[in-house]
Amino acid sequence: MTPTASSKLDRVAFYALQATLFFAPLFFIPSISVPLQTGKSAVILFGITAALVVWLIARLKDGSFSWPKTWLYAGAGILGLVYTVSALASANQASSLAGTSFELGTLAFFLPSLFLFVLISLVTKSEKQVFYSYMTLFVAFLVAGLFHAVRFIGGADVLSFGVFTDVTANFIGKWNDVGIFFGLGAVLSLITLERTALSRLLKILVYAVFVLSLVMLVVVNFSPVWVALAALSLVFFIYELSYGKRSDGASRGNIGARIPYHALITLVIAVIFIFFGGRISSLIANTLGTSQVEVRPSWSATLDITESALKDNPVLGTGPNRFASEWLMNKPVGINGTLFWNTDFNYGIGFIPSLATTTGILGILAALFFVGLFVWTAIKALLKEGTSPFSRYLVLSSLFASAYLWVFSVTYVPSNALWILTLGMSGLFVAALREDKALASSHFSIIGRPAASFVSVLVSVLALIGAVSFGYFVAVKSLSSVYYQKGVVALNASGDLDKGEADILNAISLSPAPLYYQSVSEIYLARLNNLFNDTKISQTEAQSKFQSLLGTAIQAAQAAVAADPTDYRNYMTLGRVFEAVVPLNIEGAYDNAKKAYEQALALNPQSPEVYLVMARLEVAKKDNDAAKADIDEALKLKNDYADAIYLLSQIQISENDVDEAIKSVSAVATLSPSDPGIFFQLGLLYYSKRDYQNSTLALERAVALNPQYANAKYFLGLSYYLTGAKDKSLQEFQDLAASNPDSQEVKSAIAALEAGKSPVPASNAVNQPNLPVKQ
């Protein structure tokens, strides 16, 4: 094969990486059956794998290797090695290696991203190719900006593709990820406008990106982006005044230097929104419907989790992609008092700081070494004179862009797309340094060296086999995720248990995952419930089906536990299966359910929810004292836990302790002021005590929250009569007659009121009427 042919292969590898950078933020499949994360991760990994395969074939053909001489490659290699060892040593290898769908922290996504960093600097071999990479990104910024602009103007239904259900839905990641993405657009475009001469068409493109990026930053208004943008704009502004080209084209100096107006404009806007953006942001968010709340653990909480994790796993951590398990074991006590008490955080304050927990001391040191090398290289590059204005522009733009993205890898958890752009821009930075002659190049040829040729060919062939095998693995696991999502859609959209089960079983056959087994178990619990409600089936057939359905539900839940015995949710699923048949007095059901819940509690010891389900198990066993003890433990962890208090009220009602029940339900009503069912329950309790004034107030609230709540309206009508408001009572029953014309109870009440008699049943017991519309 001639050198020309290998050069063509290098160009193919370059184009593959360009496609990866372009589609990383933009790719999606317009189907609710294909999760955004799954499709995006798959196309990114396919792109990197394809580029690696082509590059390896090119090296096999020409027998020549060349690379920039930089310690960053060593840093990436050390980080990748430590990450791999940590994943292999993980207590849950499946989660650490690939997760459910190649999450950011998994080895299967993290390691290829490091290959991307190396590859992009190897295949980008000219200044033009670096600049072409920028054009690729500029087009991506333009497409994304126009997409959101059209949706802001036309509404959430425009360009929804059936998957973008609200105006903040996007193909990049979270709403704040959108802000970070357009912050990158602002950084790249302002430096491009300041530092290089463009054709008219390109200048229009870059200006459009600059303006769209600033507009999107205003709409998203993610304050860390403004801070990072202000800092980088200020550094670039000062740099240009100190080192920039003078307006008259003379040599560099600090007198008469041209003012970088684009950086100045960006700096001013950023400062305004840092200090005064709250009011503007609220107005825009209310107008466009873009209000979003994103919560992450604080720095102190992240450090606390890290400290606890390192006590047990100091060297290699708990394993990649397993921050959530440590969070559940050691989360701060005060979290249960917030709205996010039941949130399983998968990362800490930022992705890089989370590595201290997941990959241990070795992992965080390797990450800091790599980031430190980047910072050191960047500082040296910033202070160095360039060989030409264009090469200097490429160095500065890639430096500032990659530095901007690294800030958010430390202080935030970026989406998969943003992480790929971080490594991609860093690779372009290395390529730009090489083209600027700031980095020397090393070259190695195996031609005429039989021993070296044998070793290099062997390694290259093994790498090719590994890359192709990995591509197959990505395809199979992605298809499995698609099948699972199709099953979930079938279950949620139409309640089709057969279709949902078939798709999820297909997912399991391709790539088993605990989540898939959990879903199968829940499907069979639903089948059991349907069986209980089937009055047409014979007892013999019902018994046979019951045994089969229960056995399958148990097997699926046990398979989930076996696949990941470190996830409390698997034990919760197993416990629910056994709990469902506790009222049937099946031998061992209670003991197995309790054991499963206790194991869940051991993995999530600060969860009031686990204590609540244990209390419900005791209620099913008719042990109210044990149930109250579990509820007490739940309330110790979360004293405003409405569900626990409500269960307590139901126990008190069953024990005819009406006064205590009223106290409990009143507390729940305070915690859940928009739940009509709670106020209906409170109204019934007051009614049973013959406290009709308070029952009227509670039932009025229930009806105000849900005007179609027929049972609440019925007892409200009775309460009105018993408090002397006979006209209101008649009106309430007449309203009920309109929505329930066949109800004999309502007809009797109206007839009695019109005859001047009492509509209240003779016993005045709290027996709910047979009304079709209850809530």
Give a summary of the structure in a few sentences:
The protein is an all-alpha fold and 775 residues long.
Describe the protein's architecture and organization.
This protein has 775 residues and is mainly α. It is 72% helix and 1% strand. It is built from 31 helices and 2 strands. It has helices spanning 3-26, 36-62, 71-88, 93-97, 107-123, 127-154, 175-195, 200-220, 223-243, 261-288, 299-312, 323-330, 351-358, 360-382, 389-411, 416-435, 450-494, 497-510, 514-532, 539-563, 568-580, 589-603, 608-620, 624-637, 642-654, 658-671, 676-688, 692-705, 710-722, 726-739, 744-754; strands at residues 64-68, 441-445. A two-stranded antiparallel ribbon has the order 1-2. Helix 8 packs across helix 10 (261-288) and helix 9 runs antiparallel to helix 10. 49% of the residues are buried. The model is unreliable at 246-256 (pLDDT under 50).
Output the keywords:
31 helices, 72% helix, 775 residues, globular, mainly alpha, two-stranded antiparallel ribbon
Structural class: mainly alpha
Helicity, in percent? over 70%
**CA-based gyration radius:** 32 Å
Low-confidence stretches: 246-256
SSE arrangement:
Layout: H1 3-26, H2 36-62, E1 64-68, H3 71-88, H4 93-97, H5 107-123, H6 127-154, H7 175-195, H8 200-220, H9 223-243, H10 261-288, H11 299-312, H12 323-330, H13 351-358, H14 360-382, H15 389-411, H16 416-435, E2 441-445, H17 450-494, H18 497-510, H19 514-532, H20 539-563, H21 568-580, H22 589-603, H23 608-620, H24 624-637, H25 642-654, H26 658-671, H27 676-688, H28 692-705, H29 710-722, H30 726-739, H31 744-754
Antiparallel strand pairs: 1-2
